[in-house]
Amino acid sequence: MSGIKNYSKSKKLGEGTYAIVYLGTQLSTKREVAIKEIKTEGFKDGLDMSAVREVKYLQELRHQNIIELIDVFSDTKQNLNLVLEVLPSDLEKVLRDKNIVIGGVDVKRWLLMILRGVYHCHRNGILHRDLKPNNLLMDKDGNLKIADFGLARSVDQPSEKLTSNVVTRWYRAPELLFGARLYTGAVDVWAIGTIFAEMMLRTPYLPGTDDANQLAVTIQALGTPTEEIWPGVSHLPLYNNLTVYPAPTRAELRRRFVAASEQALEALEGMLIMNPLERWTCEKVLKSGYFLEEPIP
Amino acid sequence: MDTKQLTPKMHGVEEKGPHRIDNDELYRRSTQYRYWSFDEEKIEDLRIKVNKRGQEIFNNRILKLDDEIIKKFLNNEKNFKNITVNEERLIIIYYARKCKDLSNFFKFKTQVRLTAISYLFKFYLIHSIMEYYPQQIMYTCLYLSAKSENNFIGINNFSKAIPKTTPESILKFEYLILDSMRFSLMCHHSIKPLYGFYLDIQNVLIKLDFNRLYKDYLLCRDLINESIFNDIQFLFTPPQIALASLYIIDDVVCMRYLMRKFGVKRKQMIIKMNQLKNNEKEDIKIKKDIIIKEEIKDSTNDIDNDDNIDDDDGGSSNDEKSKKEKKQTPIERYEKMIEIIKACAIKMKENINPTVEEAKIISLKAHFCLDPVKYFKKISRDVTPINVNTDNTDNNSVKRENTDDDINDDIKRIKVE
Fold first, then answer.
1. Quick one: where's region Disordered (chain B) (predicted)?
2. A1 chain-B contacts, CB cut-off 8 A
3. Which residue from A171, A240, B155, B408 lies 20 to 30 Å from B175 (Cα-Cα)?
């Protein structure tokens, strides 16, 4: 780890709750970098938890589809600075930009890159827990990289209770909506499924307006889970008085996702299976027929 | 799972597409492996360096003193001996054990305790106790670990429970610790692979009595929890440590399991297990003595030489033939693994538990090194000279000193709770 002297900050790129991001230069290499300065003022408990998580996990994850943590240094004010690769765009921007034409091969390529990155996290025992289009950054060549590990955590013991208050609402898996305290990487796969749908629709697939509405929107689109398809679901804390909607038929999905192939729909359905134990893993999606059929990314 | 299956072929889009990384490679990419894995000599080296630097820092502190009286006083301190590498290690272990108690007091989960202790040991591979006193560092390590392991507690509540601390006194070392550890916060502990082995053994050794396995598992957990105070975290990987614990607790299960996993032939397995039975009497003796510096090579040779079963020598002669071949046979791979596990088991049994008396003496010396002026002022009120060295435990003079009453605080508090 080198010190502050090796970096210069030029302009401010953005500001979040716990960090300010600057564009900067690594002086020794002249490489352009993004410097995320973690705020310390106003955090009475020392270094913020999100920062702790981000540093902890990015230090372990080296993968072409995960944002690269180049260096960490503390400056004179004892602020923690994360030196990251510069990724000028993100999936959300691309999807919202109506001037950009998105083809089937782009969608497939992006999905592949998301899955690879998340699969690498899961292999390392790390759940991202906040996958959404604006956390999926892009470099100049359109390579997609997973960023923002401020909510990530490792799964230490299968019996360990976790908080269900994770993942931005529209991408939140049903087990989280039901308040489950035990969950797995399947929550990330669900999020990828909804992002996959969003890439095809170019609009959020399940845009709930609040937590209750999110559940309604989710079951309207994908059917109400029952004990039959998901044993134990009715015992989850927030499962009560649900209107019973049928799961969508393939024909209905076909009508909604006009351009999608049968293989694409199968992968989509696999990632959006209500029962987290049945839901496909990243690996299963990566190995699915969707990636073996034309167009090959 | 092979690469081709997992990732569909790329047609020019990503020439440098990913290749399948195996689990070993995954571990090699971790900071635990990249930053914190050493052999014994390297650890010793680091500690000697740290101690030397601590010594220099202390000498500089002394040189800066211009007060004549202090100098005179110091000249009188002929009995003062420098803090040794071993003393540094002892006091760190002492506080690591305190850390365990403190963590239990806060009812943190196991992970927090293990990580905090790991941080503490890592910190003192970089700094000397003559630079930073381990008690304060230990508090901050525990606080940081609670954050890192998702067991957050507010600083006010944390500090309130620990006498003579303020939120500031704990937080002020947070950056220093992070920086010293090169911002590597992830710790892989052997509890997790142990649980994995526990599950896998149930699949592999179907006939094994479950109660025996469960009992083994619990004993292994205890053993692992107790062995965090030695250096095995720097020397071996978590699965190796987990297997070593099983080897210590129930060598038969461990060996059977590994032979199955490595695909050792049934015939060879029977020979091995019989050898073990024949050696059981011998083994019991060894276990009783717990010979720490047992030579690995010797013990394996013993097994070979004591080979009283003359069914056929097939196993061992086959071994020798195949050693010439490049690819290792299952039995060779198995034996290599057992060798590592045995070496790890020996290290695991190294149980260092410094007494309060030892800790007090080192603490006294450390406080002197850390702040000679303050120490001198205290001592000049008292008549007692610093007659501190570990060989000659002068309890009376130590007891009159108050510099290390922090040590007692902890004990008091924990007794009260």
1. 302-329
2. 179, 182-183
3. B408
Which listed residue (A71, A75, A97, A130) is catalytic? A130
Instruction: Give residue-wise pLDDT tens across range B61-92.
Output: 877 776 666 666 666 665 667 899 999 999 99
Q: Which domain holds residue B64?
A: 38-189+368-417
The answer as to whether B223 is a domain residue is: yes
pLDDT at B76: 62
Domain ranges of chain A: 4-85, 89-291
Q: Which of A274, A280, A222 is nearest to A252 (CA)?
A: A222
Determine the residue among A18, A45, A77 to mutate to test chain B binding: the one whose Cβ has the most chain B Cβ atoms within 10 Å.
A45
- Is residue B244 in some structural domain? yes
CA distance linking residue B417 with residue B408, whole number of Å: 14
Among B400, B255, B281, smallest CA distance to B335 is for B255
Q: Using CA atoms, how far apart are residues A276 and A229, in angstroms rounded to an integer?
A: 11
Looking at residue B221, what is its pLDDT?
95
Model ipTM?
0.89
Q: pTM of this prediction?
A: 0.83
CATH of the domain at B404: 1.10.472.10
In sequence order, the β-bridge partners of residue B28 are none
Query: Is the pLDDT reported for residue B335 higher than 50?
Result: yes
Tell me, yes or no, whether B138 and B239 share the same domain. no
pLDDT recorded at residue B291? 37
User: Would you call A130 a catalytic residue per the annotation?
Assistant: yes
Residues B180 and B209 in one domain: no
Q: Which is more confident, B98 or B365?
A: B98
Which residues of A make up each annotated binding site for ATP?
13-21, 36
Task: Tell me, yes or no, whether B333 lies in a domain.
Answer: yes
- CB contact B10 to A (< 8 Å): yes
Q: Which tens digits make up the pLDDT trace of A166-195? A: 788 999 999 999 999 888 999 999 999 999
Q: Which residues of chain A have pLDDT under 70?
A: 1-3, 42, 156-160
Shared-domain flag, residues B156 and B290 = no
Which ranges in B124-250 belong to alpha helices (H)? Answer: 134-148, 155-160, 167-171, 174-180, 191-204, 210-226, 232-235, 238-249
Based on the fold, state whether residues B408 and B272 are members of the same structural domain: no
**Whole-number Å distance between alpha carbons of B339 and B332:** 10
pLDDT band per the 50, 70, 90 thresholds, residue B364 = confident
- Per the CB < 8 A criterion, the answer to whether A164 and A180 are in contact is yes
Same domain as B251, residue B399: no
Per residue in B221-234, pLDDT (tens digit) is 999 999 999 999 99
Q: What is the pLDDT of residue B295?
A: 35
B70 and B183 inside one domain: yes
Contact B62, B348 (CB under 8 A): no
**Sheet architecture: strand order including A144-146:** A89-90, A136-138, A144-146
Report whether CATH 3.40.50.2300 matches the domain A4-85.
Answer: no
State whether A1 and B183 contact (CB < 8 Å).
yes
Is the pLDDT score of B15 beyond 80? no
Largest CA distance in chain A: 62
Band (pLDDT 50/70/90 cuts) for residue B280 is low
Q: Which two tokens stand for residue B123?
A: 């910190």
Q: Do B195 and B341 fall into the same domain?
A: yes
B217 and B302 in a common domain = yes
Number of domains in chain B: 2
Confidence of residue B124 (pLDDT cuts 50, 70, 90): very high
Contact A46 B9 (CB under 8 A): no
Q: Which residues of B98-115 are buried (b: 16+ CB within 10 A; e: fewer)?
A: bbbebbeebebebbbbbb
In a domain, B305, yes or no: yes
Tell how far CA A297 is from the center of its chain.
21
